[in-house]
Amino acid sequence: MAGGKLSPRQQMINMMYLVLTALLALNVSKSILDSFIIIDEGQVTARTAFEGKLGQSLGNFAQLAQENPEKYGEPYEKASSIHTAANELITHINLIKAKCIAKTDGLEMDQVYNATLDTVLSLEFVASKDNYDVNTEIMIGAEPASPRTEYSDPEGDTYNYTALELKSRLESYRDLITGQIVDNPKLIESINAIFDYGVKKDSEGKDVAWEVLNFYHVPIAATTSLLSKVQADIRNAENDAIGNMFAEVEKSSYKFTELTTAVIPQSTNVTTGSSYEADVFLAAYDAQNVPEIRLGKPGVRFDSTRMELDGDYDLVTMEGTKGKVKLPSGGLGQQQREGIIIFTPVGGQPVIEPFKLDYNVVAPTLVVSPTKMNVFYKGVDNPVTVGVPGFLDKDVSPSISNGSISKGADGYVVKVTSGTEANISVTCNLPDGSKKTLGPAKFRVKSVPDPVAMFGGKGTGDATIKFNELTASQGVAAVMKDFDFDLKFTVTKFNISMSVGGQFISKSSSNNRVTGEMKEMLARAKNGQKVFVEGIRAKGPDGTVRSLGSLAFKVVK
58 and 177 share a domain? Predict the structure, then answer.
């Protein structure tokens, strides 16, 4: 487990912590503070999971060290030293939590901390979650510019539960780990990033010491959750380091029985003027030891911190020791899938190696495919995909004769404002540095059609309206019927006219809502009477205002 990338679940927990901490500054209700219970439980769960894996890994390591001390003895001693340091640091942080909670709620330490199990009272049962005086006094003191180096309670007992002491121990733990994994610079970089306790920026952009930012005037709910996160980081780093140590020992232990040739081309698409390039080498494998190959589904990536795929995957069909991959081509352009190979050496631990499959989906000719239909509409975003066979997306630059074309979330977005036709061409970068233009592909340009006015669920094709439908209507809607784009028109004005007591009366609305006067008038409608909805105007996403005509209904009671 290396790389410092967190799992989606852990990223969610950390994001919740950041959001809730920000909300604390707004003096929100205690329900927000209670949300830290979820954060704290998530961090404890993550740490417990790491501890379960560590117990199994260290047990296997110890057995191998006993069986083969020359090979595994020294690495196991290093792993044990890290495990011991991690345990001591976990206990130290538990004592900080327990002391802060006990002082905050007026409890005895043995009511909060179980020394035998090294566990602390759950945040769920802390009464004063919004209290920050006690933990601030214990960890920082009254002067944030000069944090305390030790804490003495009113009974005269002195404790090393300060934030400065915690930071010092965490940095020593970090240095212990990085000193044991000198052959893995990426993991060292990851560990240093996780245990970076330098000056940070606060919400106002000011430089603030890590210990002050996290523990000065911070409610105990947030302090406890942060300390649980630090504990999870400790186990995460320990798991990474011990896994790395074991992998380094096992690198020299792989035993293979067969050799074969392997050819990996840089590309299977070769254009005129370019060259075919490939890596050719010998590959070794154990014919009696079949690996497991997992191929992530589209969008699934390799999580280097957990050495796992971060989503669903398929098991690759094996023929002997070779995996056979067959994938649908998917959309045009560059495609990528990620996976892992799990190989377990005889008598050793599973070794996980990630891999990527990169391939380019091409068509026999230039392809410009409108996502909605073979037409561009004025004033709206028209999504299109553009692809050229034999070329990567990065080597293709589309242009348009009438309007603009820009990169979108999925393909490109075309915008046109005038005219009746638009032509798309592409410029391709050739391997020799020159450029080639392809196209054009022609498209029609049209205005967005007018929407249809609806009142009480009735439109121009309806001759009657029930009295209850008439009086229940809240306004006039502009509906796009049989149109592929999800466009919204908003009614800006309309009139309702009808005869009341022998006099023809008309009422106006300056938006899409029925006014109070209109409702009073409509309530007086009689059976068989005509009601007119006229002067309907609607504004579209392109800024134009359209006249939607009139509606006329006969009231039915």
Answer: yes
